[in-house]
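User: quick one
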Amino acid sequence: MTAFSFRVHATCGTARLGEISTPRGRIRTPAFMPVGTQATVKAMYPEQVRALGADIILGNTYHLMLRPGAERVAKLGGLHAFMDWPHPILTDSGGFQVMSLASLRKLDEGGVTFRSHLDGSEHRLTPERSIEIQSLLGADIQMQLDECLKLPAPREDIARAMELSLRWAERSKKAFEGQPEGRALFGIVQGGDQPDLRVESARALAAMDFHGLAVGGLAVGEPQDVMLAMIETVEPHLPAAKPRYLMGVGTPDDILEAASRGIDMFDCVMPTRAGRHATAFTRFGRINLRNARHAEDTRPLDPDSPSEPLRRWSRAYLHHLVRAEEMLAGMILTAVNIAYYQELMAGIRAAIAEGRLAAFRDEVKAGWAAGDL
Ligand SMILES: Nc1ccc2nc(N)nc(O)c2c1
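Assistant: Done. Structure below.
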């Protein structure tokens, strides 16, 4: 049975080209992980997600514990069999969704009590229960339970949440022991927009010997320059030999900038959600297919894309599907966006290998700035 391991193949400044090995397969980094919150990457077949370049997808403890339930998924053979995705899965721990989706939340030292956004039923999530759920789901990479605050927030609140998250990191790690060989647990750096608290959190977690470290508490309303400043602040304190995962990020520009600053893993609902709302991500920037300018445009989105969804249909047809509110609009544009994000990741990886990430970044940004002619 392969254990969990990470290797850095090349660096370009603080950016790293690497590979994570898991029992269910390898993950080329920097990696973008499509979000499959409720055991599906919305509007896509799993084999399409794979064919478009994804090595790993995300699942979510909060949603799956409410429906269909972690014990039920385990009884049905675990998440991989349930959704027929045999490759790696990372599950978030649920804390973030509790704070953003659930109602009537009560947070205490032990954990968080909340009412389901589905039916108002009461639930309790603790570090131990979150790990138990992720283990029942069979996740290859699991996340500690943490407290993530929206920004801006008072410094004392940020400090309290960061310190609680460190105590929950210890408890998550203890609860994780005994899982099958090859599964991984990541700690999550908190500390908001406070550099000293960020460093304190990163150093404490680095000493706890997790398989990887995530940078949490970002992409929660702060400007991009604050997000990038926090990454620069924590990066020197994150173990170079372990993967770094920036949670919930982001736009193609966010990913380019964060990968340049040493981040290895990303996830965001942006490509899938935007695809369901008529927006295509391309080398020319974002294209809103609802716009009437496309009504008779016979060109595909990008004739030079390596991915079929960007070459196969005319903009006129996509515009029609959007206007007609056809399901196929969301299906095609979701595939287009997942394809484009994976093309971007492949470009970043190649540029790091060739030692030309800064030049690549400038070329890609110039393409977006030139816009869609
Ligand atoms: N922006 C995000 C997205 C997901 C998160 N998940 C956890 N567990 N913690 C965070 O801080 C997150 C931040």
